[in-house]
Amino acid sequence: MEQTIYLIRHGETVFNTQGRYQGELDSPLTLDGIEQVRNISKLLKVVIDRPNEWEIISSPLGRAMQSTEIICDILGFDLNKITTDSRLKEVSVGSWAGLTTKEIQSSWPELIKNTDNYNWYFNSPNGESYELVVHRVSEWFESIRDKKKVIAISHGLTGRIIRGVYQNLHKDHTLKLEVSQNTFFKLNDNNVERFCYEYDEFL
Fold it and tell me: Is-catalytic flag, 10?
């Protein structure tokens, strides 16, 4: 059975605009974030056939659920039919949740020594390791193995790891994958295809 997954990131949040790392905390979508999700939803509606034949699975975090509600509205999908899965949640950054990079550097300078822009998240006190996230993402893939058409709403860092696990990429490559709020991805036959509403004439 050939499976197709569309992977979507939530829209911009208030914390995003403040440079604060959310992890499993939450903040609401901004007006720009709402518009991003609306535009992504319009493009998604063009590229899928018969929205009600798809299964929508969302991270249970508020920003993902707010985005999912918009997606369902645009697609004409019954919100009561969506499912949530905690394995799609954002990577937990433990004690660093809600903080800016500057605040983290000030309080935990030794924990971000010898790290870079892509891997420092995993040094957070009480946070998740890369391996733990790979494990939960792999479990999620296994749980949907028999589903033919899936739309998944997740997060920035977790979305990178979902694509990395799907294509069996090395950690360094996975953590440098594109992450954007105007883009979504189609996972099919071990390939990942990018869709960006800013460059699409359908809108």
Answer: yes
